[in-house]
Description:
Layout: H1 2-10, H2 13-29, H3 35-39, H4 48-60, E1 64-65, E2 74-75, H5 77-86, H6 95-106, H7 112-127, E3 130-134, E4 142-151, E5 154-161, E6 166-171, H8 179-190, H9 198-212, H10 218-233, H11 235-238, E7 241-244, H12 246-251, H13 256-271, H14 275-281, E8 289-292, E9 304-312, E10 318-327, H15 332-350
Antiparallel strand pairs: 1-2, 3-7, 3-10, 4-5, 5-6, 8-9, 9-10
Amino acid sequence: MNDRANLITEMNDRSREVFRRVVEGYLENGDPVGSRTLTRTMSEKVSAATVRNVMQDLEYLGLLDSPHVSAGRVPTQLGLRLFVDGLLELGTVTDDVRAKMEETVREDQSHVGGMLDRVGSALSGLTQGASLVLAPKHEAPVKHVEFVNLAPDRALVVLVFADGHVENRIFTPPIGQTPSSLREATNFLNSLIEGKTLGELRTTVEREIKLRRQELDSLAADLIENGSAFWGGEGAVYERLIVRGRSNLLGDSAEAEELDRIRSLFDDLEKKRDIAEFLELTEDGEGVRIFIGSENKLFSLSGSSLVVSPYMNAERKIIGAVGVIGPTRLNYGRIVPIVDYTAQLVGRILSGKA
């Protein structure tokens, strides 16, 4: 970070202005910015040759690149990072955006999942990107668990919580399950619940399976071990990630290669790969974070950027996050304040302070 900051401070005024105008031009329309265009907008009167020399120096530093034979330049990933860290001017959240988000969260607060789903849709619409909303973990005690067979390779875990919340999660059961093994697994789990949360129940199940495996039908034991890995472990994460606005990214991309990269991104999200990467973003303190291209493993294949901000409960504990994915030429100055405002609003609602 310090090295990047030094690059900005070591630039003279002309180099800094050329760099800023190239990046801003690229973010606005996605096209390379040429020296002739810059000479018309520079604050001082300079020749196109002078501007070209400055651009060549910035290219040598790794901040700009020439995508085609033309003289136009675009920022590199390093250049975008430098701009975001040192030159980005943040806008303000407009009254209509505030009104839209406040209307969205106030519509029906009785169902948190529904409210967060609406937040994701609204955020996607306002930013014209794809939104990610990480919902809080459900911490209420479990009242009842049941396995339901759907097909030879698909089963359902039904979780009923003490506060009335119900979750249905599909998973792949071990081969050869029978109605009797499903009933035995269900009965075994319900005998252990005793008001435990999912995390507590998983720990208990792992211990009891080791102690009482001989009492269980082998199919039932396999089902419990397979199912518990889903509803008590990583599966609890999967259901918490809400993705909205895929079409915004697909619709804006004309090149087949770019479309394939974006589809790959959403395939990864659908398959829930590397979601731990997204969860980790919420554990580094409050405030908006910006990840550009390969800075985040989850999004490197898509050439996308992620703007993400955690939200907190009344105890100032991070319980979730909201974010926007878009092309690296996102309108960061507009989107960063919207994501920040949305995260704070969701946190206030869930803390009962709004």
